[in-house]
Amino acid sequence: MVIAKVLFWSSVGALAWTQAAYPVFAAGLARLRSRPVRKKDFTPSVSLIVAAHDEEDVIARRLKNLLALDYPPEQLEILVASDASADGTDALVEGVGAVEPRVRLLRCPREGKVAAQNRAVRETKGEILAFSDANAQWQPDALRKLVRNFADPEVAYVCGSSVYETADGTNREGAYWRFESWLRQNESELGSITGGIGAIYTVRRSDYVDVDPRFGHDLALPYLMVQRGRRAVYDTEALASEKPSRDIEDEYRRKVRMFEHCWLIVLRGKMLRGLGPTYLLEILSHRHLRYASGLLHLVLLGSSIALVREGLVYQVVLGAQVVLLAAAAAEVGIARYYVLVTWATVVSLFRYLRFGVPAVWTKAEGTR
Question: Which of the chain's termini has less CB crowding within 10 Å, N or C?
């Protein structure tokens, strides 16, 4: 029973820390030792890159939105990197480019989103590189809000905030994201965030690095910037909006695909190399333990069952887990979302270990 107790208390402690205690700790520490970004309104040249694969349903709307940004036209170029689109995406982009010289199309072989982004970077000249998804929409002042952070010479990477529209179905990603946004804001105030947002982010060209096409920018770029002595920050006022997956089940499948890439980075990306103590704690707490939450829950459930006759605390914890699983089975919104997303971390690890991670990606159902 000693081993069972060690597993029980270790898993309880790790879950309590990553899900509750760490966010509170980060918020408190950010109040004590905040590192404000020295912002200034200026307008360097910007290359805005949209990676697209078969996005004919949304690409025209995306370009119209970007062309309406409140930013000097002569300082902005827009490049759509088409990852071997087989629908009408390329023709639509070329049609816009025929009347708007700021818009260009770059045809890429089918190698995946990051490979297309890497190619696009080499084909542009802006001092600042901006990236966005084809299905996102930016507020008119979003680019100005992002760029002002680069007045601080320590800043290499800036992401904005993505607001999820209300899902047509049962997805509760919006509720989770409000919590995640608050946590990222606190991490940014401490120095640097541990993960970006694919819908809206920018990188100083001199700091951009080609990453493994299987990695993805969202998780890889922030920690790579920090390893190079730079800052990756979060600007809550730079706003984008996205349509989430319609159903929790659709979101579960999207999370499995996403977590496969996360596991690759965690296990192969050398994330912990060369980090200071504060950021190391952030990475371990917000990334490593969060991605391990499914495994921790399985350990907790197994040890709780083994120890159920050992005392009231074990019975209470087991009972709480049974209630959570029952609520998820009964399709109670938040409970079902939490259980499915947590289980996705386990399934994605199994898939990564068995099949590896492809560089190419598929669109999430219902997000267009």
Answer: N
